[in-house]
Sequence to fold (513 residues):
Amino acid sequence: MESKTFWECNKAYILTALGLGVVGFVFVGFLMIMDWGYLIQYTMHALIGDTSGVLTAPASELEQMVNAAFGPAYNSVAPEIIRASNERQEYIWYVFFAEIMIFVFLYIKNGRVTPTITRPNDTVQVLTSFQRAVIWLNIGMISILVLTGFNITWGLRSEGGDIPRILREFHELTGLAWIGVWLVFTVIAAKDMKGWRKNSTFRHFLPGSFKPSKRVIWFFYAAMGAALCFSGAMIITLHPSSLTHADVIQFRRVLLYLHFGASVLIMFFILDFVYASAVSVKGYLKGLWSGNYPREYLEQVAPDVLEDLKKAGRA
Amino acid sequence: MSRMKFYCDDYRCIDCNGCVVACKEAHEIPVGVNRRRVITINEGIEGKQKSLSVACMHCSDAPCQKVCPTDCFYIRTDGIVLHDKDKCIGCGYCLYACPFGAPQFGHEGIFGVKGVMDKCTFCAGGPDETLSENEFEHYGQNRIAEGKIPMCASMCSTKALIAGDASEVDKIYEYRTAKRGDNTSLKPYGWEAYNNGK
Fold:
């Protein structure tokens, strides 16, 4: 049996960590105005239940009044929200451009896989109707969330009004509904969680095994989705009145960072899904809709899926 | 050029909340929305209890205006910061940016979702026709157009809360501090003191 080196086994994880490390370093070091010391200490305080943002006892009566009236440490988080608002509208295009360029590069490098199908009627059911319902519900909701989210980001272009306001409300309601769909999608997409694969539950998970590169994508989609669900739900739920404003405003500012950051990152994994399903392999999208794939397709493109289905007696 | 400002004297404020009630009553503000609030620290501790009435401070360089994605804020020539509710989409960015917690959002609709923003107008109405029914419905009374000062300041029983042209407010502040024996030229005050103390 051929033994693989550590590098060969973990290349996808190492490259992803390096890529995100470089992006993170540039983003944190050059593009953000943030008191990172405060943010780290604040996060520790928030984890033990103190979300007020008052990390040390006020040294003066004035500081005590500021904490009580407005919330503490305005300069540590708020300037970024202010600055980013203008720049988000102007520069976010570059992020998407860079992400799309990665997939253009992949397409030029790998081309489009076109399996040879001689027996189109010899098909195997890969996706159950429940799985397809969840996948397409996820696709529909993500599309709504992206469009209604951009409706807020690029409000200067719409100049506000009733329709953009209703779309913003729709963003919040769809986001709340997506929490359940994201959870089920995350579970059914967890293909090679061997420990979970009991006979009775196997049909809920997708057949086949992940390559490390695909596992990274699934992991980040699940993680960024979790961050979006948590921050979005908390932003909607933690609705400060004039009297509770100082207690929660710092927490809401941090949650907004998390929401913005996760939404930018998850776009990469959404685009990867679009690339994988619509571009990289001919016939994949059709199967995603019907649930059935030609046996020859699976033999040529996804033999691991066919093998799993045979083991489960479904092929 | 004149700039309209509020000033609340924490030596005089007695936490009666008269300003809050006057504002809500005058502008028919819905439940759950307070354009003005009173903050008290060291409550019940003799000699240390202090209160401050806070609303929109009508900043000269207003952060809410900078972050609004639909550009619904505008600053009048007299410095009053107003916003257009017909443009506002209720995203809440102004709430994150405001250092004073002035923007308020009520719940509306069958799902109780966040509505459009409401805040202190310095009793100067909004972009709708001056003194019209629409203006009152959206923004409340336009007392400035009637030549009056904001309702909160006019109702303050101890005159802790004063409002008007910044230079006039400044004179009252100087008079009061001098009378109390504070040497304001040597003692840093406000944000300056806060930042120096850090």
Q: What stands out?
A: Residues 166-180 of chain B form the longest helix (15 residues). Chain B touches chain A through 49 residues (CB under 8 Å). Helices of chain B lie at 18-27, 63-67, 93-97, 133-139, 151-155, 166-180, 191-196.
